[in-house]
Amino acid sequence: MDKLWSPWRANYIQSFKHKSDSEECVFCSVHQLDINDDESLVVYKSDLCFVMLNLYPYNSGHLMIIPYRHISDIEEITNDEFAEITKLITLSKKALTDLMKPQGFNIGANIGKAAGAGIDQHIHFHILPRWIGDTNFMPAIGEVKVISQDLLETKKELVNAFNKIL
Question: Residue range 87-100: average pLDDT?
């Protein structure tokens, strides 16, 4: 399969490198925005971490759990942060299940560039809803991934789903 280049993704990530130290990290900047701000894609905030939609999702509903603290490695996560990450993974799975009815999930972290992390300086965990046949013919034949729902619409629905659970 040929590669589908998305230079706008790198441009977005690189845009934070020209700002002050406190604004340098995409995730450190995003979590400071209000949850009602459409630019943030944040769907839930807790004491030590937040949940946001991935701007470049593999599937509709692709969420990330991100600690507020700017750390890059799993060994730096405190016990309290790890407990909250685990709680938010469970909460996110429930919200996605209630809203989107996926048939499975991929949950994990890409730690380091070699592991596929697009933003390797701030650790984050992916929650990816999956459906049987969700890869369909487009990646195989059309060499393109189809995302079936608008990010802002997904965000609104997930904020409501989180609020119903809590």
Answer: 97
